Each structure stands twice: as C-alpha cells, then as structure tokens.
Amino acid sequence: MHIHEVVVVEGRSDTQRLKQFFDCDTIETRGSHVTGEILERIAAAQRERGVIVFTDPDASGEHIRSIISRRIPGVKHAYIDREKAKTPRKVGVEHAAKADLEDSLAHLITYDERLHTLEWDEFIDLGLIGDASRRKQVCDAFHIGKCNAKTCFKRLNQMGVTKNRIEEVL
Questions:
Q1: Which of 27, 73, 68, 25 is nearest to 47 (CA)?
Q2: What pLDDT digit, counting tens, does each position of 59-108 carry?
Q3: 3-state secondary structure string, 91-151?
Q4: pTM for the whole thing?
Q5: Are the CB atoms for 146 and 62 separated by under 8 Å?
Q6: The CATH classification of domain 1-110, taken from the options 3.50.50.60, 3.90.1150.10, 3.60.10.10, 3.40.1360.10
Q7: CA 26, chain centre distance (Å)
Q8: Cα–Cα–Cα angle for 106, 60, 93, rounded to 5 degrees
C-alpha cells in the first residue's frame, strides 16, 4: 500500500515498522521535544504532499500531536488504540500489527479550529463527562483516540460532529 502523504512518527522504530507494510516516507520527531527544524520540515511536507501525524497512544505522543497541530494547520491524524499498540512493558506504533496500522490509516481525521457544532451543555447532556467508558465509545466511533472530556469535546467540534451524530453512536 502506498501512502502519498508524509507520515510523522516519533522514532526510527516507528519508521521501520511502517516501512515493513507500506510504501511511505516519514519524518521522525525524535522525541517529545519537537525542534524548530523538524517543524519546518513538517510544514514543507504539508505544503508539498500533505502530512499524517501518527504518534504513539501515550502522553508524549499527544504532546507531539498538539505541538504539530498548533503550528501546522490542516494536517491529518491517525490514531491507534493503546491496546493494539502495546507489549507488556511498552506502548507505541512500532508494536502494532499490520491490520491495526491499516485500520488506523484508513480512518484519518482532519481538524478545523473554526468549527463549532457542539455545545458544552449538549456534551454534558450526552453523558460524556465523568463516564470514561461512554466517552471511549464515542472516541472509538469517530477514530479520535482515547482522550479526556475536554479534549474529546474539542476534537468533536473540530471535526464538525453534531449532537445527533453522537446520539446515533450511543
């Protein structure tokens, strides 16, 4: 499978894993401190071919994703469930099976900061605060990765998801 966009990953092991199964180019952030040089490379890749951010399902991965999203609008995001990307002691894209990587790359998300389709009161009425299992159900359905209530609300809005669409999922 060929991936046209440049895939941003955390490290060399992630690159090696993706290249086992896909014809793709990657940019490695080399950790959670994303340098200005790396951000410039990502911005150039976004202008030329588009970018898919595919970081580990952990705090460091979310931190990297956040930095890139703030600095480079319009990037696509691929999320993988933590349970599908872990060993007994580690978690990361490099530990995922081919089918799980394919599934993640088949459900890319692009966020738009200007959208606001869901009100906080509606989010509360849907029972998505304080009920992690209910929120996980919604996060899984929209392929936005596991997240807390505030991040879930933000991502759903940035995708243009309405209360009605969430009710359909629940």
A1: 73
A2: 999 999 999 999 999 999 999 998 898 888 888 899 999 999 999 999 99
A3: ECHHHCCHHHHHHHHHCCEECCCCCCCCCHHHHHHCCCCCCHHHHHHHHHHHCCCCCCHHH
A4: 0.85
A5: no
A6: 3.40.1360.10
A7: 16
A8: 35
